[in-house]
C-alpha cells in the first residue's frame, strides 16, 4: 500500500485501504448523522428470497402534480481511479488478452470523495457515503481486507463476482444479483473476478443507523429474477425498521434500492415523497428522467418530491438483450444534500 496514494487524512481521521471499497469511518467523519450510538441495534440486516410487495410506480394524489428537482451528474464529473495492480495483490496487467476491455486491471468511477479523491464539495448525498462503479478485468480482484461500521451493498451489472469472508461465506453472483454486508464491529472479505470476461459492479456504502452492530452477510441471486426488473422497478433493499415491506435485503438504515431494465420504448414511474431524496444511476444504455437525458455512467440527484418518469432513450446490448439499465437509491431527505462543487443545478 502506498501512503501517498491512500493517506489517513482523506476522510477526516478515517483510513482508506483500497481504491474500490475499503474505508473505515468514524462518527466524526459523518457529522450530519446525529442518531448514531456505539451500542448494537436490536435487529441486524438480513436477506431473504422474498421480492417486493409494494408498487412505487403509482403516484399519490399529493405528489402527482408536482415535479422533483433533478441535478444531472455527468460521468465527466466523476473521479476515475486506475490503481497499480501490485497494491492489491494482483500480477501485472495483461498486454495481449483479447478479453480485457481496459488496459488496467481496475477502472473505478467514484461518485463521492474516496481514497485518493478528495473533494469537500462532494462528500456524500444524505446517508449515501460511497458509490463506486468498478470494472474489474478477468482473473483480477481485491485481496482480503477489512471493513467497519458501514452497510455495504454491491449490485452486479455484468460478469460474476466471487465473495469470501471471515464469517465462512463463499459464493459467486451474476448479473442483477446483490450482496450486502453489515460491517459493524468489523469483518474481512475478498472480492474477485475469476471469470474469463470483465466484471462490473456498483458498490455503495450507507451510513448505518447505529455503530457497533454484529457483522452480517446476505445476498440475492438476480440471475433468477430478471423478469421482476424488466420494464418495472424491482425493490431490492429496504430498512429493517420498515416491517411492512418485503425485500430480498434489509439493512440498518432508512434506505431503499430499486433496479430496472428497460426495453426499447418502455418507461417506469416513481412517486418520490416530499420527505425523501433519490440518487439515480444509468448503468447501461441511456434514459430520460422527466425529460432530462442520462447516458451510460451519468447519475442524478433528485430532491423536492413528486412523480418521476424514467424512459429508455437508447438501449445497448447486454447479457439480457437490448436494455437501458438503471439503479436508484431512495432515502430520507437531508436539507442541503448534494454536490456543492457544480455551479449549475438543473431544475
TrEMBL record:
Residues 41-67 are annotated as: Disordered. Residues 101-206 form the Pirin N-terminal domain. Residues 41-63 have a biased composition (Low complexity). It holds the Pfam family Pirin. Residues 244-314 form the Quercetin 2,3-dioxygenase C-terminal cupin domain. InterPro entries: Pirin (IPR012093), Pirin_N_dom (IPR003829), Quercetinase_C (IPR041602), RmlC-like_jellyroll (IPR014710), RmlC_Cupin_sf (IPR011051). Belongs to the pirin family. This is Pirin N-terminal domain-containing protein.
Amino acid at each position: 500500500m502506498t501512503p501517498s496514494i491512500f493517506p489517513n487524512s482523506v476522510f477526516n481521521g478515517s483510513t482508506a485501504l483500497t481504491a474500490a471499497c475499503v474505508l473505515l469511518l468514524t462518527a466524526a467523519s459523518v457529522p450530519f448523522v446525529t442518531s448514531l450510538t456505539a451500542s448494537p441495534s436490536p435487529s441486524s440486516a438480513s436477506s431473504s428470497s422474498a421480492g417486493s410487495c409494494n408498487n412505487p410506480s403509482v403516484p399519490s394524489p399529493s405528489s402527482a402534480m408536482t415535479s422533483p428537482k433533478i441535478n444531472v451528474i455527468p460521468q465527466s464529473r466523476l473521479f476515475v481511479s486506475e490503481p497499480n495492480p501490485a497494491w492489491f495483490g494482483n500480477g501485472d496487467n495483461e498486454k495481449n488478452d483479447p478479453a480485457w476491455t481496459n488496459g488496467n486491471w481496475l477502472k473505478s468511477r467514484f461518485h463521492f470523495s474516496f481514497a485518493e479523491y478528495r473533494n469537500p464539495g462532494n462528500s456524500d448525498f444524505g446517508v449515501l457515503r460511497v458509490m463506486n462503479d468498478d470494472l474489474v478485468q478477468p482473473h483480477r480482484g481485491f485481496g482480503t481486507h477489512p471493513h467497519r461500521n458501514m452497510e455495504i451493498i454491491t449490485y452486479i451489472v455484468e460478469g460474476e463476482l466471487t465473495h469470501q469472508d471471515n464469517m465462512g461465506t463463499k459464493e459467486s453472483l451474476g448479473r442483477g444479483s446483490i450482496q450486502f454486508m453489515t460491517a459493524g464491529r468489523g469483518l474481512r472479505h475478498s472480492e474477485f473476478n475469476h471469470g474469463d470476461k470483465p466484471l462490473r459492479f456498483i458498490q455503495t456504502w450507507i451510513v448505518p443507523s447505529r455503530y457497533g452492530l454484529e457483522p452480517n452477510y446476505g445476498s440475492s441471486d438476480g440471475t433468477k429474477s430478471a423478469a421482476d426488473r424488466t420494464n418495472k422497478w424491482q425493490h431490492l433493499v429496504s430498512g429493517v425498521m420498515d416491517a411492512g415491506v418485503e425485500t430480498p435485503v434489509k439493512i440498518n438504515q432508512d434506505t431503499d434500492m430499486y433496479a430496472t431494465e428497460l426495453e426499447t420504448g418502455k418507461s417506469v414511474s416513481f412517486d418520490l415523497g416530499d420527505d425523501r431524496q433519490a440518487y439515480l444511476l444509468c448503468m447501461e444504455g441511456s434514459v430520460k428522467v422527466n425529460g432530462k437525458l442520462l447516458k451510460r455512467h451519468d447519475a442524478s440527484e433528485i430532491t423536492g418530491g413528486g412523480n418521476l418518469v424514467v424512459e429508455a432513450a437508447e438501449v445497448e446490448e447486454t447479457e439480457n438483450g437490448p436494455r437501458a439499465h438503471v439503479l436508484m437509491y431512495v432515502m430520507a431527505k437531508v436539507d442541503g444534500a448534494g454536490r456543492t462543487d457544480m455551479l449549475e443545478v438543473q431544475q
